[in-house]
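# step 3/5: fold
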Amino acid sequence: MKLLFKLIMLIVFTSCISVKADDTANNSNFDTDKNSAEAGIRLVLEQQEKAWNNHDLEGFMEGYWKSEDLKFYGSNGLTRGWDNTLARYKKNYPTKAESGTLNFVINDISKIEGDNYWVMGEYHLKRGVGDADGIFIIIFKKINGEWKIVADMSC
């Protein structure tokens, strides 16, 4: 009976170690994937800031998914599609005086599932025609190996 008890305890003990080792490996992979995703997403946002600050709205739009399924939700309602979103930016920011200098503040990047992340943050526009500040929630998805914004809610 003592031998049976020792054998059961040995099996339970080694099973716990195996599960713990698997959990540690999975968490390590998750952390690596999350860090890589965050770095890629931050790079897109940095490139967008640079393009915006050069009044390069087409360059700014490179961070967005070039699809009719792109969604932008702002103070004027829902805009669908990459072309319509670019047209909206061109209408609202026709010159450097209106677009000014953009600065993003990233407050959170969180995984939703798979290769989908949301980003919560703030935008700050310094402009001669009056500064503009607001908040955003952006959803990024890795598409064909590149991080792209698939949905943007800014106000």
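# step 4/5: annotate
The beta strands are 71-74, 77-80, 101-113, 116-126, 132-143, 146-154.
# step 5/5: archive (pending)
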